[in-house]
Fold:
Amino acid sequence: QQSQVDASSNKLETNSDWKFFNGDINAYYNNLEKDIKRNPKDVLNYAVHRWMGEKRSTEEHYHLIRSAAHRYHTNANSQNFQVFDAGCGLGSGLMWMEKEQPNWNLTGHTLSEDQLRFIHTQIPKHRFKAHLKSFDHPDQSYDFIYSIEALVHSTDVTKTLKAWSEHLNSGGVIALIDDYLAVGVDKNDEEVVAFQKSWLANTLITPLELGSLVRQMGLQVVELRDLGQEYRVNELNYQNKLPVIKLDQGRSHQGWLGAKLRTRLMMLGKITYNMIVIQKGGKSPQPNPIFPIKEDATTTTTTTSACDAVPTKGPNDPAAEYNAITPELMSGVGKDGGDKMRCISGWYCCNKGLEWYDTLEQKRTDRTPYLHIDRSLFGHYIDSFAKHLSEHYETYPAGVSGGRFLDIGGTGSTASGMQQVTSKFQHFAGPLQYWKLDSDPAAKKLERTLSCDIDDCPSAEDCGFEVTFSHTVLEHAARPWKSFDTIARITKKGGLTLHLVPWSYQFHATPEDNYRFSHTALRSLLEDRGFTVLDVGYDICWQPENVRKNRLDEHYDTIWLTYVVGRKN
Structure:
């Protein structure tokens, strides 16, 4: 009986018909090539990665890689530009790059004897060098390192990235195209584990985890693209259909099982297909008209050189005048903030974190290290926001005009039955104009309001806001990493970004409810996009006694909120 996926029960069943190679990457690729006939005269025929786009081209990866080199490295057109293909396969990438960039000195490593033999004996004459060697052991220092669907095979990603960092010249660039674990997916998920085993995906981490690793090595992520969405992989490559996991045409190699599981995990949103570009020092790139990023690309960059900075007064200049920023909550009804609110809502009052922590310390019976959260992470979010806004506005010179404060999701979801608000955090704008951004249809009629989805809002201009802000909004975003892409794009250099999101909170579809955020998630989302985190922590909110006694529905008795304040570098 052959293995298959039961899409209705979401159950994966496998049998022993598949041939595995016990983690031996050499045997894995040597045997895989026996199932495929290659044309050594056609460079695109012996590419060993997936095709992309409506033209079904494996060449697209090379265009992306080459374009990244030119966008982020000032010497990509120089003679003797040193390039390392980490996991070069059958040499198609090296051959393509040699033709397009004759000034590049190219070297590739592969662990497959048959792949190296193909390079040395079958493909046309070439200048590049290829070695039977792990990509953990570069031969020299390089200006540019790229890897296409190979980093996933690393048995120790920290060791691999450390080796690349140590062999990367100052200003050097690393471009990676590979599969990554989607944020929030359990690494012990049965299908994920089966994919890792069959695909030899020894390194299956999220883009955020990769960003954290490279920062520890003095590198920075300068670009993140979701190629799966950009090139409509599920639609074009997979026809939006879950695969049947079975042997086809006698192909029993574990790689064919891995390919089917890869399709399934992409379709189910458990893995993503990303391009991540990393840089070691150097200057932020200027826009390159010859090698631009596609206009519809899903992109994150930490580039700030093109951004205007927020206004700053000199040591003897008079300061801007404005009403003091107070840590108050307002109803938001009307033009002037509406009525003051004693608590965050009719259900909860906040600023209970330290009380919870101290009570726990007095009464605890157990102490489990991995559950511990430091006391310094607990605070009152509204106090933190008011403090940092006050300190920020103190640097503004007198007479400043035209600056803008953006309240993301600041009008309320009337489509979900909520009351519309128009000025809930107007008192936080200080010397700036108070603007709102919302996707709610009713927001279109409001003044100083951008009507769009924060995940994709072309009408929000680049570097257009001194302060970007949201209050229990980003959990509703379909793709919050895109939301933070937009936030990074529209916040001025030196500007503040402040956000409150739930960590432990009941489901609330207004109109959707998609994500929860830990303090480490918020830190990564900002730092990966060129912000310095000034404050991050938790605020715990309880139901007042009269609510606990008289009201009962799906609301939790206690909720945890996560807050963050960052400054754009």
Q: What stands out?
A: The radius of gyration is 26 Å. The first helix runs from residue 25 to 32. The first strand starts at residue 4 and ends at 6. Confidence is low (pLDDT under 50) at residues 1-13, 283-291, 294-305.
